[in-house]
Amino acid sequence: MFYIDTMDSDLRLGDVLEWEFSATPYIENDFKMNLGFPKFSVVLTPCCSVIDESVPTNTVSLTPLIKLKNSFFKNPYWKEDFTRLNRRMKPEHTLAPEHWDGLPPEKKAERLAKREGYVLNSIFVYESNDFFPKYTIHSKGETNPETNYYMINFKYAFRIDTKKSFESPRNTLRKRKLLQLSIETRSELREKLSDFYFRIPKEDTCELDY
Amino acid sequence: MNPEDLDYSKIKNTGTGSHEKYEDYQIIPYNFDKYVVKVKLSLKNEFIGIVEIKLNKDFLSQQQKISASDYHDVEEFYQD
Q1: Are A44 and A65 in contact (CB under 8 A)?
Q2: Does ipTM surpass 0.85 in this model?
Q3: For A117, which of B72, B75, B77 is closest by C-beta distance?
C-alpha cells in the first residue's frame, strides 16, 4: 500500500499537497527569480520538525511533483512498477536491455560486482493515483503510452514560511493536504533521502582513512 | 575439572617450554563515539587506568560502507 486510505490532518514527510507555486532564485548574468507552477508539491521536512515552537515563523520544505522522464520507459523492469526506483535493485535491473547488452564486458563485470543499490539517488517516485492527471510519454518508434506516475527530485526543494502554525486547522498548507504515504512508503522515502545526503565524496574518504 | 583449565589462552600461556614472564594486567580497547579508549584492567577486570585514547579509524558501519559504495550510476543512460 503506497498511500493510506484514511489520512490524518497533520503535515508529514512525503505528504502530497495541492500547492501550485514555487519560486527559485536563479543566476544568469543577473539575479532572477524563476516561478514554477506545479499542480502538486510534496513535504520534505521530517514529521518531527514540521512543528517548531521555538521560532516565530513556521517553515516547511516542499518539492514539486514532476513528470517521469520519457527515457524511464525504456527499462521494462521499471515500467512494470516505477516505485521500484525507490528501492535498491540488482545491477542487471538498472539499465534497459539495449544499454545493458551494449556494455563492454569489463564495464558489465564492474557493474555486476556491486550489490543491490540505489539508482537516480535524488529521485523518489509517487505511485499513480486518481488525483494525478495522466500525461503522455513520448518515445521514438513506439506508441506513446500514458501514465499518472509522478516523481520528486530532492534537489528541487524550496521552502514556505507561514505565520499560522501548522497545528492550526486554518493553516493554508494543512488544508491542502491531499495524500499521505503509508508508514512503509514513508520509511522508504526516509531511507532514500538519508542515502542521498549520506554519500561521502571520495576525497573525504581518503582524508578520513588515516 | 576447573572451567579455567579449558581456557585456551591460559593453556597456551602455561604450555611446556614457555619461559616468558606474563603481565598481571590486560589492556582492553573500548569504542567510544569515534574514539578507541584503551583501558588497563587487572586480570580480575578491576579498573587500573586509561592507557591511550585514539581516533577510531573504522567508524563507518559495514551497512554504511555498503550503502555508500553500491550506488549504480546510470544517469547517462536516462537523458531525455
Answers
A1: no
A2: no
A3: B72
